[in-house]
Specification:
Strand content: 5-15%
Protein name: Aminotransferase class V-fold PLP-dependent enzyme
Organism: Devosia ginsengisoli
Shape: globular
CATH superfamily of the largest domain: Type I PLP-dependent aspartate aminotransferase-like (Major domain)
Structural class: alpha/beta
Largest sheet: 7 strands, mixed
Number of helices: 15
Order of helices and strands: HEHHHEHEHEHEHEHEEHHHHEHEEEH
Keywords: Aminotransferase, Pyridoxal phosphate, Transferase
Helix content: 40-55%
Radius of gyration: 21 Å
GO molecular function: transaminase activity
């Protein structure tokens, strides 16, 4: 299966690519659909951007909303999850002394986002240390709830963490935040196409996710979700054609006939909309190739590889299996020069994989996608055994 699927991707054959989690990889049929959208744009830019774009942008919203357990009016297409989360973070009315509650597992770009917001507003960041190894939902939820105070205004959590590849059980924490009147903002950069999502049932106020990672759409495709009663809080970072002077008033539509939430964020000047317009093709590709079965195979391969490496290092995993991202696992390795190890893996073995230091741990973060194979996992184990002298 992996050999056949590998031929459907554009990954260089001389590279063992084990880093799908960073930027994703687009299958050939999806990439062709992407290029076709770009060609259509260039053949008649005025018709495409001036007359047809509003309806064209709507179609991926319909398809993706069905996949994510919501309706098209609750999501808007953007270029990446970081942009969506910045829009939310800079829209919320925070004041000096307000607290943003988060964890010590968050993505560095968003840590900087909230630091910027705090510098501008006088709010404060409160970081909860998530107990490791993560073994139970109660262990996680109790840590989060213990950090909530009367001053907590925002709960910011990753659904799947970037540095540690953990799948946080966020449902009860979100429900408690809502009960207390705390805005919940969720970083779902790694979730679309990776785990099943039902956004309306999850109940988060705001949720941003990438489509270019595990959904395998082109780079530059992502979404922002907002619950209907929260959409009026959103203020665009860029004021452009989608804005009207009446925007934000109850019952007022945006400049292009959608809600202000959609029109203000979608229509912000000239850009290439092809990545977002290709999301439907990515969803079709997954269905046509029974991607649930592919993903299950990848999950088994990822977990088996992590188990094999742990046997050689003697280092415990960061969590029980149910709290590890299905196709991505942060594997603890012995203390080392992580930059030198990453370079050696690439130069000597042509393996592309993130190796980094997180807090007091050294980690190699493995991603397994449909184009990966068991022989590639064997190569990784052998390479780490050699370079870390594990034999």
């Amino acid at each position: 299966m992996s050999e056949n699927l590998a031929r459907q991707f554009l990954i260089r054959e001389d590279i063992t690519f084990l880093n799908h989690g960073s930027f994703g990889a687009c299958p050939r049929p999806v990439f062709v659909a992407y290029q076709n959208w770009q060609l259509e744009l260039e053949r008649q830019p005025v018709e495409f951007l001036g007359r047809n774009l509003t309806e064209a942008m709507r179609q991926p919203r319909i398809a993706l909303a069905a996949e994510l357990g919501t309706i098209e009016d609750n999501i808007v297409g953007l270029t990446n999850a970081t942009l969506g989360l910045n829009i939310v973070a800079q829209s919320l009315d925070l004041k000096p002394g307000d607290q943003i509650l988060t964890t010590d597992h968050e993505y560095s770009a968003l840590e900087k986002t909230w630091a910027y917001v705090c510098r501008r507003t006088g709010a404060e960041i409160v970081v909860v240390k998530v107990p490791l190894p993560l073994q139970t939902e109660t262990q996680f939820t109790d840590a989060i709830l213990a950090g909530m105070t009367e001053r907590t205004r925002v709960l910011f959590l990753s659904h799947i963490t970037s540095p540690t590849a953990l799948l946080f059980p966020i449902e009860r924490a979100i429900a408690e935040a809502r009960r207390r009147g705390i805005w919940s903002v969720i970083d779902g950069a790694h979730t679309p196409g990776h785990i099943r999502l039902d956004l309306d049932r999850l109940g988060a106020d705001f949720y941003a996710g990438n489509c270019h990672k595990w959904l395998m759409a082109p780079k530059g495709s992502a979404f922002l979700y907002a619950r209907p009663d929260m959409q009026g809080l959103i203020r665009p970072l860029v004021i452009s054609h989608g804005w009207t002077e009446a925007s934000g008033r109850p019952g007022v539509l945006g400049a292009f006939g959608n809600s202000p939430f959609i029109d203000e964020l979608e229509m912000q000047g000239t850009r290439d909309p092809a990545p977002w317009l290709t999301v439907s093709a990515a969803l079709d590709y997954r269905r046509d190739n029974d991607w649930e079965s592919v993903a299950a195979h990848c999950q088994a391969l990822a977990q088996d590889t992590a188990r094999r490496l742990a046997e050689r290092t003697g280092l415990a995993p960061l969590s029980a299996p149910e709290f590890c991202a299905p196709q991505m696992v942060a594997m603890p390795i012995p203390d080392c020069d992580v930059a030198a190890l990453k370079l050696a893996l690439y130069d000597k073995y042509r393996i592309e994989i993130p190796v980094f230091r997180w807090q007091d741990r050294c980690i190699a973060r493995l991603s397994v996608q449909g184009y990966n194979s068991r022989p590639q996992m064997d190569l990784l184990i052998d390479a780490l055994t050699d370079l870390l002298a594990l034999g």
